[in-house]
């Protein structure tokens, strides 16, 4: 029925729910102005962060983009520090200096996220090169969206990764939209995985809303990288349920989503969490009540993260220029 | 004679006098011998790669003297292609790779054999490396050296002649060093590699054949500390990198006319050695700032502003700047001669102050 133990499947389900509920919990604070930094919600894409990061070990590296909360949580980052960061508070993972777009958990191998489209791709290349020089057999994952396929540095990076056989997996989450631009207006063909071929990089296109499929293809890719058979490129097809930034496109709170309701509805039916839940119940792995209990536990965790963040202190204005340089 | 050789001998001639003056003696006296500027860089790389396995060199042409002179001599043979990485022309990705390797605990040196090509790498240098430590609240740092070689003159035109150190000094989170002697070339490269922050190391190919005393030992020169190259009481002449050579020459010419010039070599353009600068201006009351970059929003503007803000009451005359004009570099030698600051132009600027 399934090759996975119940405890692994429970962890996978719990992680996807943690990401979803944490993201959705931000909608209200965004709309009422408590959260002011630009927030790019990951709702709808949870299977990718979860499936990929579960294929990695704690020592492996990931870099991410503007839509990075899912990768941070799935790689083991603290939810409390994430939420505190989004509120701009001192206990945040970046001490309130970064906001939603700059989150980091170095102790978990989450080496950082940045919103310059494709900006972290060569950084991931560098981490992969570092582990190759040190002969550590670590694997690096570079998460980016379909929009990054418009940036030249991606192609430079694919070339260099292939030349040096670096242990890196380029993970493209194709959600069909580059901010407001539908992919058909960005590319003559919606098949990003094909860009790996001219660089002799093994490339795949995979359903990004099927968490077990994501996990399986990632696990294989990680094993190949560890054996020195990297790099690889995986394009995961998915959809973001929220706007590019904030709950709706394009301006936070104004309900101006550019996508048709019908299109959003089609993808709502492919919701990766609902699909996984149906799989678990249909195969009698978990009962509905068990999953609901997990949901409630996660709700509690999210609530506590917000409570902690709201009562935490803002950074001290006297420390405005602290951290410009490492002393 | 090749262009490099020709420029090198020009440097050597102008620097013979420069090196022999009483102006400055390094504090380390043991095992001193003469070394060229480019071989001093080479020695710093050898010693740092030897002592620290996390140091590596990456960039276009690191195995070709045509790109990097003899600065990388013997490195590939000694440390192998895993740590001496020649790359395709992909400045953005390669600089990003160096920055990313630093984030993963390495101490990379990434070289741009022509600083002009570094424009392609503005994202990893400015958006990523410079901001990284700050935007993650100090949780991660970027010990990377980004080395850009100024390679001007020789009728190479606008895209092979730029000096863009002021761009980088403008950006919070970057340090910028510009050595003018073989001793500094080695000591500042060692310091840059050991620094936990991104350091822009700018050298000038016009200095590559300059010889000077260099200790065999590994030593650092503190980043942000300038030095007095010649003492004087009448006017302060501030410069960096190759402009120090021209400034010292100008100061000798002026000395014969009875004007005692104090020449300050900033060595780092960020952080700026304000103490040294202000103390000198307090003493002389006059300031001429020489910079090998453009005039508008350049280093000379910054030095002038700091002096005006802090020690204005000591000034006996308006501050004067000697810089490149606000113009791209020309190709034709007749225009080139007009374009680059020389000791003659510097001396003339100083004389003008005293006439007024």
Notes on the structure:
The complex is a heterodimer of chains A (327) and B (356). Chain A has a single domain (6-262, 284-314), classed as Thiamin diphosphate (ThDP)-binding fold, Pyr/PP domains (Rossmann fold), CATH 3.40.50.970. Helices cover 42% and strands 11% of the residues of chain A. Chain A has 12 helices and 8 strands. Chain A has helices at residues 6-24, 27-31, 46-54, 69-74, 79-86, 121-133, 152-164, 183-186, 211-226, 261-268, 272-282, 288-311, and strands at 61-64, 110-113, 140-145, 168-174, 177-178, 181-182, 202-207, 232-237. The longest helix of chain A is centred in the last third of the chain and has 24 residues, at 288-311. Chain B is α/β, with parallel strands linked by helices and 356 residues long. Chain B has 2 domains: 3-215, Thiamin diphosphate (ThDP)-binding fold, Pyr/PP domains (Rossmann fold, 3-Layer(aba) Sandwich), CATH 3.40.50; 227-355, Rossmann fold, CATH 3.40.50. Chain B has helices spanning 3-20, 37-51, 65-68, 75-79, 91-103, 122-135, 165-169, 182-194, 242-256, 274-284, 299-311, 333-339, 343-355; strands at 32-36, 55-59, 84-86, 107-112, 145-150, 175-177, 199-204, 211-215, 227-230, 235-239, 261-265, 268-270, 287-294, 320-324. In chain B, the strands form 3 sheets. Chain B has a 7-stranded mixed β-sheet, with helices on both faces. Chain B has a 5-stranded mixed β-sheet with strand order 9-11-10-13-14, with helices on both faces. In chain B, helix 1 (3-20) crosses helix 9 (242-256). Chain A binds chain B through residues 61, 63, 92-98, 102, 104, 106, 111-112, 114, 116, 119-133, 152-153, 156-157, 159-160, 163-164, 322-326, and chain B through 56, 82-83, 85, 87-88, 90, 92-106, 108, 123-124, 127-128, 132-141, 172-173, 175, 196-197.
